[in-house]
Amino acid sequence: MNDLKSVRNKNRIADNIKDIPKSGIRDFFELVNTMKDVISLGIGEPDFTTPWTIREAAIYSIEKGMTSYTSNLGIMSLRKEICKYVDKYYGVSYKPENECIITVGVSEALDLILRAVINPGDEVIYHEPCYVSYRAEILMARGVPVVLNTYEKNDFSLDPDELEKKITPKTKLLILNFPCNPTGATLSQEQRERIAEIAVKHDLLVITDEIYSELTYENRQPTIASLPGMRDRTIFLHGFSKAFAMTGFRIGYACGPDDFIDAMMKIHQYSMLCAPTTAQIAAEEALKNCMKDMESMRTEYMQRRNVIVKHLNEIGLKCYKPKGSFYVFPRISDTGMTSMEFAQGLLKKHNVAVVPGTAFGACGEGFVRCSYASSMENIVEAVKRMELFIKKS
Amino acid sequence: MEKEILRLLTKNARMSVEEIADRLSTDSESVAAIIKKLEDDNIIKGYIVVVNEEELEEHQVKAMIEVKVTPDRSQGFDNVAKRISKFPEVTNVYLVSGGYDLRIEVVGQNLQEVALFVSSKLSTIDGVISTVTHFLLKKYKQAGVIIHNEEENERLKISP
Ligand SMILES: Cc1ncc(COP(=O)(O)O)c(C=O)c1O
User: Fold this and answer.
1) Which candidate, A287, A283, A273, A261, places its Cα nearest to that of A86?
2) pLDDT score, position B150
3) Is residue B51 part of a domain?
């Protein structure tokens, strides 16, 4: 019998995967899981159950036996609904036949587009603090991640001048995520226009991850894809997870010029075949009949945001009022603790979970992410405990 | 703001003035003033509790009664409806379209009490032509509240 050691020799795992660190959120997650009765503001998904009509549509489709594969690109009627929706709310029109693909969440769409356009060594600019997957996804697609920091003084929005400084002849791609996870930052129309000009000037491709775009507490913003010269160089990523509280359904989509979609479709066809049929049917129902549900969830998020921002500032954790997503990103550095010390201390002493800012990039040091996708009761109690924690420390 | 306050109170009449103020990024005084005005203007008529009677030791009997009425030449259904509304055992009175005219809800200590009310008080009112009484067997949802909660699904405690 071969002993395990020799079978599991050090060459079993590919180098580029071995070198990718596990998500910073992972260790903290393990710690939280060892504890009981935790009030968590660490959750990156809606606390609402998926609206009943959506669940019912899914159940009904199973009853009818709609359980076979769909076309690789996804169900045509869903693609049509999506293109109608994107045109109406984001101001760009795409053809459902060849400019739209249904994926397993934005997660898969992001993976597809990165693999579809990156040649080894291409540089990809993304802004931090950001969603935990970007860096790893770029690496797995054999690209070179280039970080652009965002700062509290700009409400974590992206400074176009700073962006321009990061561009080299090897820069191929820029990833944008506004409203942003974890900061809640948004772009002003002026910033969006400046970024578009830069993208055109330097011939960059742009991925815009608009997963939180419905959760914008002023007017919903047009997408950067709608600006002059941008449609043909932008891939628009969106999905149902956040706005329709459908994280577990795993449905996302990409809209973009047909050569992008075609290349993404090649990968998707061989690796995924199609997104789950039941979930696609549910997503169609969401767009057709659940705008009211979405709007009432948004109203609730907005009011919770107002409450949590006020209470955090009152206890001395400074945070600006973000205009989108369901996160606030208060500064905790005045307590003298690092983000990790703060999060661990708060968890161990007061059973409240928040995510250390460093999980989202090095420049998240000094901050923590608090999700308000949690009941008002939890939010108010969690902030109370934070106050106790700060006072005693 | 008035509309939003009304919406919040409709969902939870016990929501504190402070919470409403924080939610709407305003101060408690303004919220209190608006609520007072809604009450004074006869827009907010009362605050009620949704009770799961099954959990109580003794529960009352409830009935929904369909009432056919001859409308009055000048007052329509108003006279009869107002008259019925005066009885304390009557909790709700609605004028509805369809096969009958008034739908009323009645509570009593027991079946006999409700039956007596229908035969001696309700049917004898001038203008009431006929009644059909439905006794309430089980309540599933009231005022937007599902009475028997499903088990809650637990989310991950930390997610990206
Ligand atoms: C910015 C961002 N992009 C993408 C995703 C993944 O979304 P999906 O569920 O559509 O894969 C998330 C989820 O947290 C996110 O925050």
Assistant:
1) A287
2) 76
3) no
B 95-154 → A contacts, CB under 8 A:
153
Helix (H, G, I), strand (E, B) or coil at A140: helix
Residue A17 above 80 pLDDT? yes
Architecture in CATH of A52-289: 3-Layer(aba) Sandwich (3.40)
Contact A138, A118 (CB under 8 A): yes
Q: Does residue B121 form part of some domain?
A: yes
Q: Which of A137, A186, A214, A241 to mutate to test the pocket of ligand 1 (most atoms within 8 A of CB)?
A: A241
Tell whether B56 is within 8 A of chain A (Cβ).
no
Ranges for all domains in chain A classified under CATH 3.90.1150.10 = 2-49+292-392
Domain range A2-49+292-392, CATH class: alpha beta
Amino acid A22: pLDDT: 79
Per residue in A220-248, pLDDT (tens digit) is: 789 999 999 999 999 999 999 999 999 99
* ipTM value: 0.85
**Closest to A50 measured CA to CA, from B38, B60, B155:** B155
pLDDT reported for residue A6 = 67
Domains contained in chain B, number: 2
Contacts with A25 from chain B: Cβ below 8 Å:
158-160
**Rounded mean pLDDT of B67-92?**
94
Looking at the structure, tell me whether residues B74 and B17 fall in a common domain: no
**Claim to verify: residue B76 and residue B123 sit in the same structural domain:** yes
Q: Are residues B77 and B33 in the same domain?
A: no
Residues A251 and A280: beta-carbon distance below 8 Å = yes
For the segment A264-283, what is each residue's pLDDT rounded down to a tens digit?
999 999 999 999 999 999 99
Q: Do both B111 and B66 map to the same domain?
A: yes
Dist. CA A141 → ligand 1 center (Å): 18
pLDDT at A113 over 90: yes
pLDDT band of residue A4 (cuts 50, 70, 90) is: low
- B158:A25 CB<8 A: yes
Length of chain B as a residue count? 160
pTM here is 0.92
* Mean pLDDT, chain A, integer: 95
List the one residue out of A289, A264, A232 whose CA is nearest residue A57.
Answer: A289
Q: How confident is the model at residue A1, as a pLDDT? A: 52
CB pairs under 8 A between A and B: 50
Indicate yes or no: CB of B22 within 8 angstroms of CB of A43. Answer: no
Q: Is the dihedral of CA B115, B119, B120, B123 positive or negative?
A: positive
Residue B121 sits in which domain range?
60-139
- The gap from C-alpha B94 to its chain's centroid, in whole angstroms, comes to 10
Q: How many A from CA of A235 to the centre of ligand 1?
A: 16
Q: Given a cut of 60, is residue A55 above it in pLDDT?
A: yes
Q: Peptide bond before A182: cis, by omega within 30 degrees of 0?
A: yes
Helix (H) or strand (E) holding A125: strand A123-128
- Average pLDDT of the residues in A272-299: 97
Same domain flag for B69 and B13: no
pLDDT surpasses 80 at A301: yes
Strands (E), chain B: 61-69, 90-95, 102-108, 128-135, 141-142, 145-146
